[in-house]
Input
Amino acid sequence: MKKDNSSKPAYCPFIEEAYEECYASTGMSLDTWKILHFCKSNFNECEIYKKLVFSGVKPQTLEKTGSK
Ligand code: SF4
Output
């Protein structure tokens, strides 16, 4: 079996922080496909992710591990 050496996280680093604007925090079932699509492996395409990163927000999960 080939080992995946990718450094890309499996989930969006913001997913545990429940930002108000995140799809996972809205509680709307219409956003379920967006959670499945963006929050898991395609977070680099998420407009909310881009906005947070552009604003200089750093996920606490990265700060905890000391990743840069
Ligand atoms: S992918 Fe977007 S909506 Fe999902 S947790 Fe990350 S920033 Fe929030």
